[in-house]
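Posting for a labmate who doesn't have an account.
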Amino acid sequence: MTRFQKVSLAAVGLLLPVASSAQVPQPTPPPFVLEVDVNVVSVTAVIFDKGGRFVKGLGTKDVQLFEDGVKQEVTYFREASGEGEKIPLSVVLVLDTSGSMVPNMRFLQEAAGNFLYKLEEGDSAMVVSFNESVKGSGEFTEDVDRLEQAINGLQAWGGTSLYDSVHYALGRVKDQPGRKAVVVFSDGADTTSSMNDQAVVDYAKAVEATIYIIGFRGSPALFGSSPKGFYRKLADETGGAFFFPDKVGELNKIFTEISNELKNHYLLSYSPLRAPDGSYRAITLKLVSPEAAKSYEVRVRKGYFAVKRSRPPAKRR
């Protein structure tokens, strides 16, 4: 049986409530700083030409990596779509189910379902839906049929807890192995979150996950004050991309584009020359060849927090 064949739906799980800002008001937490072991820093890089095509066949001799302007030695460099062991992908689909989505819910469900069936062997996903509350589909799974069942059961109503949902998705994916991605779809500005936009951006900067945003225009009256700035900041800081389609019919094309990019990237790692000191450090990846630098575009996350993970206290005997 292949992973795309139908399986028993006896174990199908419903989307479980995570938090409801409308029912349980909470104070906005301070910006999150993820404590990571900085002996090795991993960087996901997407390199493409002016036509938007992924550039294949590069190696360590073709790139230079800098941390706060200081050149670092790249100790690991792999093309995800190349030969060798596959790099696993963990992705969270974050879907807007607020009241304004009623006329477009069917299109979103179809596009999101098609996206899931493009996942490959070893990839896993989970679904997060949000209106005035945030709900998750359970644990990460390779069972696409189960995830599609969860998506098809979504109903649109209520407000828009956009910030809370992105924060929750990042928290769920941050400890997953391999490449991590969050794909967000929303048609309006936040109205009911307990968190603010800057706190979510700070969290995104600390989590090693690429964020892709699809900000559907929807009805101008419903969209209110546009969250474009928030969307662009999230995508830019994490090395992702932001899409703002005018027509819901463009969703399948956009989801396919995101799926293709997730399969075509480079994974690099290096050991920082400077010891961890709690500071935020900028990451820059440059192409060595002047011709390549002019012809190709490089996208990586902007940086990370260099905080040494605290060791647990020794157990008393």
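Reply:
Got it, the structure tokens are right above this. The chain has a mean pLDDT of 85.
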